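Posting for a labmate who doesn't have an account.
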Amino acid sequence: MHWFKNMAPGDIASNGRERLLSFSDSTGIKETSFSKDIEETKVYEKRWYILAMFTLLCAGQGIMYNTWAPIQSTARAVYKWDAFMIDLMPAIGCLAPCLSIIPLGWLMDVKGLRVAVLLAAGGQFVGALLRCFPPGNNPWLLSTILICSGQAISGLVAPIPLSGGVLLSATWFPSSQRTISTAIVMAGASAGSALSFLIGPILVDDVAETVVANNDGRYVLTTEQENTYFSQIGAMFVMEVGLMGILFLGIFLHFPDRPPKPPSRSSGAERADFKLGLSKLRRNINFLMLASLYGVSCGVYSGWCSVLDQNLEEFGVGQKFAGWLGFIAVISGAFSGIFFSLFAGHFSSYLKEFLILFMALASLSILTMCFIFAKVIPFHRLLLCIVFGFTGFFVNGSVPFFFELGAEITYPVAEGITSSVTKFADYFLQAIFLIVSMGNFGAKWMTWVTMVTCAVTTVLLFFVKAKYNRIILDKKQTVLPD
């Protein structure tokens, strides 16, 4: 995303002759000055097209990751799976990105957005395509292998859409629109998850509605029933691979690296070298704490939502109701992220305060869920929908603020590597959460753990020292005389 290859890290991209601002307290860059004619900034209408394509890519990733949560009862019956396999699917979606996230962060920062986004779209298409191959004589075994492979391939490229939103916002949008742009991208992933909660139950019938489970909770299907359910799941796969193929073609035809001129002064500034930037991140205690808190709260919450149906089994509700709960949570989170980002654009120096408020309210919402699951509060579907909506509203709504605050604290480290490291904390802690569960300890404890992680995050956020380096650079202008 660098327009000025000959400029030192932290130089300013704007009109006239300017002084290099000092961020020595957080980046180690010493104050200096220079006299140089610098290209003017400009905002392009095309940025909304770029944002739309990237948001659709995030939505595709959300669909791929959350394929199984809305149809897990039927999937367990058709593929001869148990709770372990249902937990394994999102765990693969978390572990695979842990292997690729740092190399892909380098790819985004060094090779540019077009190469990275094409790779992500291609990976999602291939991952979706693998699930569509005919099963042969052993449908449940071969299909399971292909499904796991597709899940892994999709997960390997997931860091690009799910952590690249901050880089895209910095590359194409002025400082006043960066937070809302990032929020829209994050909402894309939420929208994909929400669509999967609708698409799955609509296209795939709930086995619990027609088949009575054995004493061990398993569903025994006739050959005809098995073929019917397998065909329904296959149709869902074909529809998804078609959507991924169209998206890949659209990105291939037009998705430029960057605009001809930078949209803001901090956007046009040369970022620190990737290796140097990674070294700075390792020494930045504020950033490391923020990234860890993001993983502890939002990562664990995402893992909890991905196996929600297990929490509801004892209440006798099916996968369709669980799907609607997931839909309500992610849609409310997407709405809150965008809505509050509009205010954050005017109060951009209060990202930390937004996060503390969101996490505190999220803790209270999830605590109410704990009481419902523990039957301290009487179970009622409408109450559960309302409370679960609030959990998504506050937890998912906080995501863009975590990423934008991380980019502010670490500037001039490039946004690609900063957001990648932040997302790594999410993947890693979510994977641990899912691996520990793996169908062995029931489901109630998951809700309590999720509540505790949000509460702990609320308290520890007070100890994160917020620094708004990019905002200072964009607002402050020291012009040297001609």
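Reply:
Got it, the structure tokens are right above this. Confidence is low (pLDDT under 50) at residues 1-38, 477-482.
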